Amino acid sequence: MNEVLITGTGLWTPEYGVTNAELVESLTRAVRKWNADHAAEIESGELEERDLPSEKFIVRASGVGHRYVIEKEGLLDPDRLRPHLPTRSEDELSIQAEICVAAAEEALAQAGISGSELDAVVVGASNIQRAYPAIAIEVQDALGAGGFAYDMNVACSSATFALQNAIDAIKTGSARRALVLCPELTSCHNNFELREFHFIFGDACTAVVLESADVAGAAGGAGTGESWSVLGTRLATKFSNNIRNDFGFMNVAEDTPRHPHELLFRQNGRQVFGDVCPMVAEHIATHAAEVGVDLEDLKRFWLHQANLGMNKTIAKTLLDREPSPEESPVILDEYANTSSAGSVIAFHKHRDGLEVGDQAVLCSFGAGYSVGSVLLRRRS
Ligand code: CO8
Predict the structure, then answer these.
(1) What is the pLDDT of residues 166-180, one digit of tens each?
(2) Residue to probe by mutation, ligand 1, list 154, 265, 273, most atoms within 8 Å of CB
(3) Choice from 57, 196, 273 to test ligand 1 binding pocket (greatest atom count within 8 A of CB)
(4) Is residue 334 included in any domain, yes or no?
(5) Count of domains in the chain?
(6) Whose CB has fewer CB within 10 Å in the chain, the N or C terminal residue?
């Protein structure tokens, strides 16, 4: 089996930032208008008055402070509450492919290779812009890569599931250099009309370059020289309806039309919190034991970024003490939950201070339920 290295990471961050205050203001205006428009039904008891959102709740319950989005005006318009995006022609690069290419360029530069040296491209994301041709094949074409490319979706866990696919391909020799992308445009599938969901998500795209150790560094490019050995990967799933989205190709054929909210993200957040924290802690502990890594020797936990309390709980269970902010980095204050991109953003932005030989874990978890972990050791 070939040794697999991560030799580059990249991040595309949208140009528009949205604060909690801006989101709360637009939803407050929309809810006040709805309550006024339905005053008679509320008065008669036919409808319930809707509650207003709250900035204080958002920060206390989730740790989310801000997010970046691909388009801001539409989702802050109280009469719309969803982004405005231009419909692109077939001759233009799709929006998801475009953000993949932007993130890929940074990752390829770090690795010191060009797109033409890749022989596998895997796009893993919670939502894919179209059914086919695959976004990954479009990216492969745009980068001049060879080999094969495909899209896949395991919601927030798409990051680690896609990484395992790329790692397995390199280990067994069906690819030598692979690119894993997580183009998350969550703002197109988030429900900005409901106060329990409107604050959760943000947009971003990540890229990871993986290479077989025997070819890494052989391309001759000016990479950073930093590399991470993959010590092992572990994936698990367990069915749950607590995070759900019924958008799909059968919607047009269904005899009973769905409520529009069923075609967007929805969850029973409190139940998810309770179910997933122990599942993830147990998953990482088992994985570390299988690979022969002591939990105390894990210097960093790049965890999926859904909720600050969840990440603290998971790291505390594993370490048997409070994690320091360096040990379990959080990006929720700036990026919010970017679905599968979150754990990779944490890895991309927070690996300073780790030395050659240091071990760490990247772990994503979410709908399905699903959880995946990648154990890493800094090699150079
Ligand atoms: N402002 C004020 N009050 C509020 C608000 C608000 N915005 N929202 C809810 N409340 C109220 C509720 O009505 C409730 O009132 P009451 O007690 O009277 O019923 C009270 O506050 C408490 O509500 P919750 O129990 O819902 O609040 P929690 O403390 O549980 O916090 C969270 C809610 C923040 C959602 C929290 O439960 C959480 O983060 N859970 C973890 C969720 C998680 O990790 N999910 C993973 C999702 S990611 C994924 O895998 C899907 C990927 C798909 C991406 C698609 C892109 C769109």
Answers:
(1) 999 999 999 999 999
(2) 273
(3) 196
(4) yes
(5) 1
(6) N
